[in-house]
Amino acid sequence: MKYDFGGWATRNDLTCADGRVIKKDAFKGQNGMTVPLVWMHNHNAPDNVLGFAHLENRDDGVYAHCEFNNTEAGQTAKELVRHGDVRSLSIFANQLKQAGSDVIHGVIREVSLVLAGANPGAFIDDVLAHGDGESAGIIVGYDEMIMGYLEHSDDEKDPEKQDEGKENGDDSEETVEEVFNTLTEKQKTAAYALIGHAVENGESENNDDSEGGDETMKHNVFENDQRDNKTYLSHADQESILKKAKTSQVGSFQTALAMYAEDNALQHDALASGFVQTGDGNVSLLFPEHKEVRPGAPELITNDQGWITAVMNKVHKSPIARIRTSQVDIRNIDKLRPRGYKKGKQKIQAGNFKLVRRTTDPQTVYVKNALHRDDIIDITDFDYVSYLYNIDRMMLNEELATAIMLGDGRDDGDDGKIDPEHIRPIWTDDDLYTIHVDLDVAAAKKELQGTNTGANFGENFIVAEGMINTVLYAKENYKGTGTPDAFMTPHMLNQMLLARDLNGRRIYASRQELATALNVGTIHTVEQFEGKTRTTSDNKKKKLVAIIANLADYSLGATKGGEIAHFTQFDIDFNQEKSLLETRCSGALTRVYAAIAVEEDVTTASSDTSSRDTVDSQG
After folding, report:
1. How far apart are the first and last CA of the chain?
2. Tens digit of pLDDT for each residue in 35-45?
3. Among the listed ranges 59-63, 84-88, 138-142, 560-564, which one has the minimum average pLDDT value?
4. pLDDT at res. 418
5. In the predicted model, what is the mean pLDDT of residues 95-120?
6. Rounded to 5 degrees, what are φ and ψ at 406?
């Protein structure tokens, strides 16, 4: 047989570094088989495979005739062996059967070249000098010396054998000390380490004679392979199962899986969706269970919530639920103007003025829910009660904020409608309180194109400039306090931020720059504004674009006890935990001309012909 070197893959009746003792014919079934020859049990790259090993079962153990492949790694390893730099062999075996620490059966999957083997007798003893069939002779090294030590140590302790040697006149035999002294210092150091390791593991052997123990073995002192104590199903095995399942004799993947398990001494566990190793019960999952990416309560998909927080934080909270506002408009009343006096003339009394007064009464707004107690007990991943409460509170806040800005959008006859006379929407409020202005993009385009703007700027620039002009002109009549904020659709904000000149330079680099141009404090996007329209008293259809207001001018009133309260009650008849979130409040702008509603005129021939303001598309 052509081979590059030969050596003992493993030797019988020697205590290995892992505490096992391999018994005679433990790998008898491997006789004549060929397994891969690898480097240091590494399998993460193809170049770690150095060749193959032809196994031969002998009385003393398993002998390996090894041949290197023609890869660069194979030839490098060949030179290391030929030069004597690497002398130890190691095996990886599984499907082991043990009696205590004695291995009585197993399957060798590979032979490895290693720097130090766990089996004291696993070493290279025959190397071909040039691969031409001529042996360079037996290599004697520290592995063999340790082997000798282990083999002869029992003889030295047996007086009968010692006497027998003397009677036979065998006084010329070298002692262990004399043999050991022939080693170099480097070899002695390695011998000390290996002997100490073997003795240490030998003292901790399990003396139980029943079959058991780990079913995977790899003899390499310096290697701690993650495959130890596990059963494996490689990609090649999976392909084999699939191929078998496709055959007419098998017919199903489940049958093929069971056949594979039986052929490879594995027990299929349907509950674990995988394989359980025979013996110690370690599980290697073929089909792992699904795992939650974000454990705990399910993630909520909600509408835009950022503007809702801004609204609820900025509105004026009043301890009075019944709100009354009184205003007198004395602008442009000529009769109120002071007069100059001429001697002898009668003084004229100033004219009258009109008082504007409105009152707003509170309305109860609530959200009611019920949780079945069985669900509360069974759901253990998160606090189900707290989770539902947080959802209810979020929905209540969104409903109040929507009612303040837009109105709730329900039909007038709906029992659940929040009456706009109790919580007055800013958008549809009277013109005395909310300034309604139109964004006329066509007019803005005509004005800007008249100065040849179209040669230098795109459509978004026209929309942005038209919006800024509309807001700034409307603010000339604005009477609200402080600096207002802007609430607008995300599309309108994007159009303004994407305004560029024809060189690609943005006109407004950030949202704050745009807020400065609009003369507002902060810009909030409100996706709930998209598609909202109303029909005015003169039968025109208006689409909402933005609302400009300082919400400190909007009063949300609730008397003591009318604030948001949470009530719970257990219904023993239906085994339900009932929850009620409730508030009783009123809301209205308390200053005239305190808000600006920017709209687009989208009137068509089919517009509603109602004689009063109505709100559409609020669902």
Report:
1. 87
2. 999 998 887 78
3. 138-142
4. 94
5. 83
6. -120, -30
Averaged pLDDT for residues 223-246: 54
DSSP letter for each residue of 193-228 = HHHHHHHHHHHT-----SB-S-SEEE-BTT---TTT
CA distances from 150 to 64, 117, 160, 176 (A): 22, 15, 18, 10
Nearest to 568 by CA among 370, 399, 384, 378: 370
| Whether the predicted pLDDT of 570 surpasses 80 | yes
Inter-CA distances, 540 with 175, 262, 440, 490, 596, Å: 116, 80, 14, 24, 18
d(CA 94, CA 231): 8
How far from the centroid of its chain's Cα atoms is residue 23's Cα? 50
Residue 426 has a CB neighbour count (10 Å cut-off) of 26
Confidence of residue 46 (pLDDT cuts 50, 70, 90): confident
Locus of tokens 């969706």? 273
How high is the mean pLDDT of the chain? 77
d(CA 26, CA 11): 10
| Among candidate residues 356, 363, 357, 364, the one with its CA nearest the CA of residue 324 | 357
Tell me which DSSP letter residue 574 carries: T
SS3 category, 551: helix
The phi, psi pair for 44, rounded to 5°, reads -85, 0
- Find the radius of gyration of the CA atoms of the chain: 46
Instruction: Give the torsion through C-alpha atoms of 293, 296, 301, 303, to 10 deg.
Output: -130
pLDDT more than 90, % of the chain: 34
Please say whether the beta carbons of 34 and 60 come within 8 A. no
Angle, CA of 13, 14 and 17, to the nearest 5°:
140
Cβ–Cβ < 8 Å for 254, 262: no
User: In 49-169, which ranges are E strands?
Assistant: 49-58, 61-68, 88-99, 102-114, 124-128, 135-138
Phi and psi of 369, rounded to 5°? Answer: -150, 165
Which stretches of 232-274 are DSSP H helices? 235-245, 253-263
- With a CB cutoff of 8 Å and minimum separation 6, the contacts of 204 are 19
- Written as one letter, the residue type at 13 is D
Give Cβ neighbours of residue 17 (< 8 Å, ≥ 6 apart).
Answer: 118, 119, 194, 197, 198, 201, 219, 221
